[in-house]
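Two folds, back to back.
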Amino acid sequence: MEIRSAGGNLPTSPVPQQSQPQDKLARTISMLPEQTATSPASQMQGTPAAGGAQPSRNEVEESVATLNQFIKSLNNPMLFSIDDDTGKTVVKIVDSSTQEVIKQIPSEEILSIAKALDKLKGLFIEQKA
């Protein structure tokens, strides 16, 4: 009876795995130009980092259009837009065949809460005065 090592039958190079949609999205995001890091608080308040000037609405709309053209050329399901009521940038993952929104960041609920808080903000100030 002879005992042999089973290691001789194993492949020497790694077996390629089929890429998942998440892998494709991660590669796409890694190809985007890096931006300077800002604190989450400044991103939420919409204040620019390092004391820079706030971009105008037209500049933001042009940037969003450019981003959408770039993403579309990669056959990526992401869509960037600006919420009309809050002025915040919204990222949507859209099914290209049905145009159904799969994921939205920030969500519709968060946007509606932000709109309600903006309306209430004026009431709180008026009541104190």
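---
second:
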Amino acid sequence: MTSRRTENVTRVDVRIPNELYEQIREIAIHHFNAKIHHRSNKPEVTPTILELIKIGIAHIDSTLPVTNETITDELRQAIEQLDSRLTKVENQLSGVNVTAPRVESDPTEDEKILTDMKLSELLGVSNLLIRDYRVKGKKPRGQALARALTEQWEVKGEGWVRKS
């Protein structure tokens, strides 16, 4: 096999079996839209051959096992770090029963949260008076109602609970 080398290119005389050359020519025409040579009226297959060689090299590189020691050392270190983090999490969760569902107890009668409407029905007054006191802090006019609200009930979130 002979070759001539220039600054960027090495020209190589390669003998390709006719069946393989026909396949390359078909690929050049159908997949790479090869230009037709102005004198010979044949498709230019050199760019296609070069592209097929690049594809083959990339495929081989992707299927070869990793042999670089620095990469495997970095992977080992990353795995060790993840393993130590996992061990820390396991130690933190060792006393926690993660399979048992968390059950919140039902509020007792004294702890039940009433809406403005429910409290107004219970006290027999307008729910607007109750809401104004809860939202704006505006005490109702009647002394009995004001005393009932301030002494017996307290605001909890969006509702009312009976004081203990």
